[in-house]
Amino acid sequence: MTKPVANILGVPFTTRGFGETVTHLVERIESGEQMHVLTANPEIVMLANENQAFRTIVEQAYVVPDGIGIVYAAKWTNQPIHERVTGVELVEALMAEADKKQWNVYLLGASPEVIQLAAQKLEQRFPNAHIVGYRDGYFRQDEEEQIVQEIASKKTQLLFVAMGSPKQDQWLARYRDQLQASLMMGVGGTFDVISGKVKRAPMLWQKLNLEWLYRLLATPSRWKRQLAIPRFVWTVLKEKWSNRS
């Protein structure tokens, strides 16, 4: 029997494939559970290794492997993660479930233009899902309590938050108990993709597991963030070799 959790540098990842993950999350929502879903790539793993407060957040979340580097690391360390569970695809799959089950959905974050466009596109594609509210991520700290109360009043099954990482997951962890949402998930740049403002890598790049390279070529300013990848690879291999000795 496959273990439900794989440990990559101390971060507990679910080992479920994409379809199994969606099924499992839907079951937990319907059973009345509350959960914080965190999509983690090598950058997030390295941050969790360097920041104890963030590591605590990660350890308490339902962590899915968003990043081919995680799949490779699992292979190198003989752990059963075999496919990515990307944030964009998980949001779309959960929205399809919301459409079937008429769930309430709240969208928070991104720019005013992007969040409005994303809400419109999702309403067109999933007309039976109830988008009960949305607002951009440009708010002051003294507005947070009112935003949290508004979201809580909507009794949402799905809350998607786009503030960039790690801020979005820190925000969700801070207000988790007050938000009253069944599933809370930080979604990074997903609203940019859904709104059409940012194009996802072509399917060939996705199939070749080179989506990270496509994003880097499209946005060269990401290069500093991408430095986490070689550090991650070195740390995983170093740990593997030290466990052998």
Automatic annotation (TrEMBL):
Source organism superkingdom: Bacteria
Catalytic activity: UDP-N-acetyl-alpha-D-mannosamine + N-acetyl-alpha-D-glucosaminyl-di-trans,octa-cis-undecaprenyl diphosphate = N-acetyl-beta-D-mannosaminyl-(1->4)-N-acetyl-alpha-D-glucosaminyl di-trans,octa-cis-undecaprenyl diphosphate + UDP + H(+)
Coiled-coil segments: none
GO biological process, one term: cell wall organization
Listed pathway(s): Cell wall biogenesis; teichoic acid biosynthesis
Gene Ontology MF, one: N-acetylglucosaminyldiphosphoundecaprenol N-acetyl-beta-D-mannosaminyltransferase activity
InterPro entries in UniProt: TagA_TarA, WecG_TagA_CpsF
Keywords noted in UniProt: Cell wall biogenesis/degradation, Glycosyltransferase, Teichoic acid biosynthesis, Transferase
Keyword Transferase attributed: yes
The keyword RNA-binding belongs to this UniProt entry's keyword annotation: no
Xref: Pfam families: Glyco_tran_WecG
EC code(s) of this entry: 2.4.1.187
Job description of the protein: Catalyzes the conversion of GlcNAc-PP-undecaprenol into ManNAc-GlcNAc-PP-undecaprenol, the first committed lipid intermediate in the de novo synthesis of teichoic acid.
PANTHER family, sorted: PTHR34136, UDP-N-ACETYL-D-MANNOSAMINURONIC ACID TRANSFERASE
Stated family: Belongs to the glycosyltransferase 26 family. TagA/TarA subfamily.
Protein name: N-acetylglucosaminyldiphosphoundecaprenol N-acetyl-beta-D-mannosaminyltransferase
Organism field: Brevibacillus invocatus
